[in-house]
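Milestone M4 deliverable, item 7.
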Amino acid sequence: MSLSCRFSAGFTATGSTESGVCTAVNGPITEPVNLLYIVELASGTGAGKGDQVYQAAPTIGASPTSINTASGGGLVNGRGEAVAMLYHRALYIRNSSASVTIIVGGSAKVVDSGFSLRPGESVLKFCGAAEATGNAIGTITLAGNGATCDIAVVGASA
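Output delivered:
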């Protein structure tokens, strides 16, 4: 499978204050913030590349949902092909629940020591394009009875 990935994260904000302190300005003082970060991964298994993707929208039950992207983990991609990652390059999770917090954990290096996502929150973690190996695979565990989420994992098979 040929895979091309582009991750972009942007943040734009404009703040203003009305102040009589600055007499040189008649009106609001503004501070625009514009940040944009883009990482593109080419198809393959070397530095800056990925060749596997897994996407799902699970509803989490009373027991945690485990996602094992390793060879033999039993996952298939959207084309029906077995997912067999050796390294994780990127992880995206969005908690689409209205009232349930999701606890993210597991043995995958990409989840570090774990974190929580409150309703409506999301996280995007990715390796820099120059990193040769990425994050070692392992299980990604999602806990939060009745919660729904969107998850996507991009990795490399070698």
